[in-house]
Amino acid sequence: MLDLAGGTTVYLACGATDLRKSYHGLAAIIKLKFKLDPYSRCMFAFCNRRRTSIKILQWDGSGFWILMKRLDKDSFHWYRILRMNYRK
User: Fold this and answer.
1) Which of 88, 83, 78, 87 shows the shortest CA–CA distance to 13?
2) How far, in Å, are 26, 83, 84 from residue 54 at the CA level?
3) Is pLDDT of 53 > 60?
4) Are strands 53-59 and 10-12 parallel, antiparallel or unpaired?
5) What does the pLDDT read at residue 81?
6) What is the 8-class DSSP label of residue 11?
7) 66 near 57, Cβ under 8 Å?
8) Cys-Cys crosslink for 79: which of 14, 39, 43, 62, Cβ 3.0 to 4.6 Å?
9) What residues are paired with 53 via a beta bridge?
10) For the chain, first and last CA: distance in Å?
11) How many CA atoms lie within 13 A of 62 on its CB side?
12) How far apart are CA 74 and CA 69, in angstroms?
């Protein structure tokens, strides 16, 4: 069952993610890029490049839940990856 408890940790994947990925691809991003456990009870939120769609992945103990929301108008306010240029 999907866990929507008030104490659930939610991680936002800053920047754009290819939302054509299914749960296998999103779980791989969580594990390899973010070094987090996709099988934890946390929620992991991803947004597409145009910021019109969001996917949320959560493990419930027996399988993954994928929630998706797509906007017909406007776009989500989403965190971008901050790029810092260091000069020596």
Assistant:
1) 78
2) 12, 23, 26
3) yes
4) unpaired
5) 66
6) E
7) yes
8) 14
9) 70
10) 52
11) 3
12) 13
Question: How confident is the model over 31-47, as pLDDT tens digits?
Answer: 999 999 999 989 999 99
Residue with tokens 């993610």: 17
Per the CB < 8 A criterion, the answer to whether 67 and 55 are in contact is yes
pLDDT, tens digit, 9 for 90 and up, residues 74-87: 888 887 765 544 44
Residues 6+ apart with CB under 8 A from 36: 11, 30, 42, 44
Q: Does residue 11 contact residue 41 with C-beta atoms inside 8 Å?
A: no
For residue 82, the one-letter residue type is: L
Alpha-carbon distance of 39 to 59, in angstroms, equals 5
